[in-house]
Specification:
Elements (H helix, E strand, L loop, with lengths): L1 E6 L4 E6 L7 H5 L7 E7 L2 H15 L3 E7 L8 H13 L8 E5 L1 H13 L6 E5 L2 H7 L4 E6 L2 E8 L4 E4 L9 H18 L1 H15 L3 H21 L14 H10 L7 H18 L5 H13 L11 H14 L6 E6 L2 E5 L4 H9 L1
Parallel strand pairs: 2-9, 3-4, 3-5, 5-6, 6-9
Antiparallel strand pairs: 1-2, 7-8, 10-11
This protein binds adenosine-5'-diphosphate and zinc ion.
Length: 358
């Protein structure tokens, strides 16, 4: 079992990475000053797999448990679904000390986190992420949100959890495509912050794809450490935290052009990291070999490098929208090598088009 401590200015919490961790959540929660009523938010896929174990662990630790089960998928990140969580919380009499527990992937984590941040102006929040993507990324760092008809993640809050419990054995049941999507974010950490970790990933690719729990636990632990370090220095994304957006600018455009159904987030990020690599090479910021090494690892993990049939123009039009949101210029995260990135606002449209056309 490994622990990563996240130390923020006004708040700190522990991420526990342990095989079989779901059955220890109740005991771990008992170390915190919490009330006796807990509300689990999960989805219809995860509920039959892991909600029983979690409920038993909570009951054994003396908690009374209520549960809201939402439909799987991005559609549940809505104010309507959040309202269903509030209704359950109110009717079950949850008070200021009652924790809301997210059991599921990023969708459930973002939704439950948003509900925890706003119900009674904030109640304790526990994350039990069950996708690799959520375990290495969305469950750490405190971004919570629901979507608006006009855009994703537009309504939300920075709200830190009080406890995160990561059970790598829960990944055994994860669909292959979701596992690979999580590996894209894992690769991202290597590129932005740790060359040795990147090399370790290349060596461990087969074990990761085979879901070896020990290898997964080590890799997840390192990702959480790296994210915790970055978030601790910039909780609200004013500077350093932007590094975590490597691959996400083009990635979001790819997801959007595909109507959020053709490519999932991790696949978008894989394509986006490749594009960011090509832009970096095109601008002379990194070496050709660095992009090749990135391409090799992405391919080895079964991730796409390109979105065939997506025209550079279509992708560029989504980048224009990002521009508006970021007051005129996009903060591009470019790679200067494996394990090193830099942020720049000076990327020309022609450099982007050229990379997207390759
Ligand atoms: P993400 O974590 O990638 O943001 P979601 O929350 O949408 O994504 O989860 C992706 C899909 O995987 C959903 O259909 C969800 O129900 C399912 N899922 C989550 N965790 C598991 C698991 N451990 N085993 C099987 N399916 C899971
Ligand atoms: Zn991401």
């Amino acid at each position: 079992m490994a622990e990563v401590r996240v130390n923020l200015e006004a708040h700190s919490y522990t991420i526990h990475i342990m095989s079989g961790g779901i059955s220890h959540v109740g005991a771990l929660m008992r170390r915190l000053p919490l009330g006796d009523k807990a509300l689990i938010v999960t989805d219809e896929n995860v509920c039959p797999l892991y909600a029983g174990t979690l409920t038993d662990s909570l009951t054994a630790a003396g908690f009374t448990v209520a549960m809201v089960t939402v439909k799987p998928g991005e559609g549940s990140k809505s104010l309507t679904t959040a309202n269903a969580v509030f209704t359950e919380a109110i009717s079950e009499g949850l008070d200021r000390k009652s924790p809301i527990i997210a059991l599921g992937g990023g969708v459930v984590g973002d939704l439950a986190g948003f509900a925890a941040a706003t119900y009674l102006r904030g109640v304790p929040f526990i994350q039990v992420p069950t996708t690799l993507l959520a375990q290495v990324d969305s469950s750490v760092g405190g971004k919570t949100a629901v979507n608006h008809e006009l855009g994703k993640n537009l309504i939300g809050a920075f709200y830190q959890p009080n406890l995160v419990v990561i059970d790598p054995t829960a990944l055994e049941t994860l669909p292959e495509r979701e596992l690979k999507a999580g590996l894209a974010e894992v690769i991202k950490y290597g590129v932005i912050a740790d060359q040795n970790f990147f090399a370790d990933l290349a060596a461990a690719a087969a074990a990761l794809l085979a879901r070896d729990p020990a290898v997964l636990a080590t890799v997840i632990g390192r990702c959480c450490e790296l994210k915790a370090e970055i978030v601790a220095q910039d909780e609200r994304e004013s500077s350093l935290r932007m590094l975590l957006n490597f691959g996400h600018t083009v990635g979001h455009a790819v997801e959007a052009v595909g109507g959020y159904s053709e490519y999932n987030h991790g696949e978008g990020v894989a394509i986006g990291m490749h594009a960011a690599g090509l832009i970096s090479k095109g601008m002379g910021v990194c070496k050709h070999e660095d992009v090749e090494i990135l391409q090799q690892l992405l391919s080895r993990m079964g991730l796409p490098l390109k979105a065939p049939g997506y025209s550079p123009q279509a992708l560029m039009s989504y980048l224009q929208r990002d521009k508006k949101m970021e007051s005129g210029k996009i903060n591009w995260v470019l790679m200067t090598g494996i394990g090193q990135v830099k942020i720049t606002r000076e990327v020309t449209d022609s450099a982007i088009k050229e990379a997207l056309a390759q």
